């Protein structure tokens, strides 16, 4: 294949990007997105603060804009994210207990119902585990509603959009030896054992010099897949430049392609200048829309599989 999406499709995989609603009038951005990618994640437009700015008043305008563009161009969509401790609307941030639990479940139900039948995979719950060596849940207002809040969110999502894949999504879960990876793994194993509806695990894959692509990445993805879930690389970006950045990108593609249940890779933005990172050059296209070495290594690796 001569584009990322075509090359990935040869092994039955997708290649995606995050799209920001505010950049949809940038022709260069949209041309690259349309040419290279067949899976679209709304970078911010489906988050809780965007979709429910006032309680029970839902706003889907930006999300719909991205979804309609994607579907009308033959692409699929990842929904991001139904429940998260961050990017909560102001009215939710100070809620606690049963009131918050009900508001969260109502949010999951409403948003998943609005997009029913249009979403390939939902990030049902995002970033619910703590960093560091505890392997425990993150302390958040949602966690304080009870340890079963995550499975309650998954059940509500399944009821609202029964044909979408339901994912748990997190960062710093790439290295098999990290406590956070083990914590998520144990939760997924428990969900599978008890019949909680979970179909996939998303690995955000935000890499930098302090958190490089681990040499055991393939092992991590395979171990999760062996629990009976699909795995997806959902927000890939890698700090750096030139050949060393390109080699790390190649390693990520290699790891995914070596795991049958790794369904695809999404990069977190189109050009370096579109990245959430304030500085740096973590993506596959430079600020002028030119393909970087990292792009060429990714394309070659997709084609060699
Ligand atoms: O659009 C408003 C603008 O009107 C306002 O003037 C400005 C002032 O703060 O803010 C703009 O919104 C910003 C938005 O990005 C769009 O640029 C928000 O402040 C800013 O918080 C938001 O950052 C996003 C971040 O998540 C927080 O939600 C990034 O774009 C987005 O790339 C990033 O994505 C996250 C994933 O959702 C979860 N995993 C980590 C990943 C990277 O942080």
TrEMBL record:
Keyword terms, alphabetized: Carbohydrate metabolism, Glycosidase, Hydrolase, Polysaccharide degradation, Signal, Xylan degradation
Group of enzyme by EC: hydrolase
Protein name listed in UniProt: Beta-xylanase
EC number from the UniProt entry: 3.2.1.8
GO molecular function: hydrolase activity
Catalytic activity: Endohydrolysis of (1->4)-beta-D-xylosidic linkages in xylans
UniProt domain GH10: residue ranges: 1-301
UniProt keyword Hydrolase, yes or no: yes
Residues the record marks as active site: 235 (nucleophile)
Protein family: Belongs to the glycosyl hydrolase 10 (cellulase F) family.
């Amino acid at each position: 294949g001569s584009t990322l999406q075509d090359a990935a499709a040869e092994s039955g995989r997708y290649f995606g990007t995050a799209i920001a609603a505010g950049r949809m009038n940038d022709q260069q951005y949209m041309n690259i997105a349309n040419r290279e990618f067949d899976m679209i994640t709304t970078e911010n437009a489906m988050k809780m603060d965007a979709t429910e700015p006032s309680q029970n008043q839902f706003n889907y305008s930006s999300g719909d804009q991205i979804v309609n563009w994607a579907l009308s161009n033959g692409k699929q969509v990842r929904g991001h994210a139904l429940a998260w401790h961050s990017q909560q609307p102001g009215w939710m941030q100070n809620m606690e207990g049963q009131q918050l639990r009900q508001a969260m479940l109502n949010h999951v139900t409403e948003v998943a119902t609005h997009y029913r039948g249009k979403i390939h995979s939902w990030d049902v719950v995002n970033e619910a585990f703590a960093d560091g060596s505890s392997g425990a849940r993150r302390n958040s207002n949602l966690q304080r509603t009870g340890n079963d809040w995550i499975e309650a969110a998954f059940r509500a999502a399944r009821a609202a959009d029964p044909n979408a894949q339901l994912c748990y999504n997190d960062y710093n879960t790439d290295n098999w030896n990290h406590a956070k990876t083990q914590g998520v793994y144990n939760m997924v194993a428990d969900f599978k054992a008890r019949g909680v509806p979970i179909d996939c695990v998303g690995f955000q894959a935000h890499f930098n010099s302090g958190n490089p692509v681990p040499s055991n990445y393939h092992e991590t993805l395979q171990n999760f897949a062996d629990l009976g879930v699909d795995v997806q690389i959902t927000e890939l970006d890698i700090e750096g430049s030139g050949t060393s950045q390109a080699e790390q990108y190649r390693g990520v593609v290699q790891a995914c392609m070596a795991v049958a249940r790794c369904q695809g890779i999404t990069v977190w933005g189109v050009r370096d200048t579109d990245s959430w990172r304030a500085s740096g050059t973590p993506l596959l296209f430079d600020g002028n829309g030119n393909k970087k070495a990292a792009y060429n290594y990714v394309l070659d690796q997709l084609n060699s599989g």
